[in-house]
């Protein structure tokens, strides 16, 4: 039996991985609800080029992203395309989808 891989290291790396230039004008709060083994709930705030991550929930996110932990890991590693996951219901978004689409730019390598 294989052990579930946790999403926690991905969220722990976000504050140091944020592209400060791309996120310099951002002011957004994301709620991540990742179910199943290795999952959890996380609040990711990106404001003025700074990213903070907390475990838990917020009552006022700008966008909420829900998926299984396994599917989320596949999305962030590129094994499962975001668009495919979204269209097929493997990842759901409540709130502003455009803000979710910006996540890629906020964590893109700096030029």
Give the topology, please.
Elements: H1 8-17, E1 27-35, E2 40-47, E3 50-55, E4 63-68, H2 69-76, H3 82-87, E5 91-95, H4 97-101, H5 103-106
Parallel strand pairs: 1-4
Antiparallel strand pairs: 1-2, 2-3, 4-5
Q: Can you tell me about this structure?
A:
The protein has a single domain, classed as Nonspecific Lipid-transfer Protein, Chain A (2-Layer Sandwich). It is 30% helix and 31% strand. The chain contains 5 helices and 5 strands. A hairpin with a 4-residue loop joins strand 1 (27-35) and strand 2 (40-47). The radius of gyration is 13 Å and the shape is globular. It starts with 7 loop residues before the first helix and ends in a 5-residue tail after the last helix.
Q: How is this structure best summarized?
A:
With 111 residues, this protein is of the alpha+beta class. 30% of the residues lie in helices and 31% in strands. The relative contact order is 0.22.
Summed over residues and divided by their number, the pLDDT gives a mean of 94
> Which consecutive residue ranges, at least 5 long each, have pLDDT under 50?
none
Whole-number total of structural domains: 1
Overall 3D shape? globular
* Computed structural class: alpha+beta
Topology as a string of helices (H) and strands (E): HEEEEHHEHH
Distance between the termini: 42 Å
Instruction: Return the CATH class.
Output: Alpha Beta
- CATH structural fold name: Nonspecific Lipid-transfer Protein, Chain A
The CATH homologous superfamily name equals: SCP2 sterol-binding domain
| DSSP, total strands | 5
Percent helix range: 25-40%
Largest sheet: 5 strands, mixed
Query: Using only CA atoms, what is the Rg?
Result: 13 Å
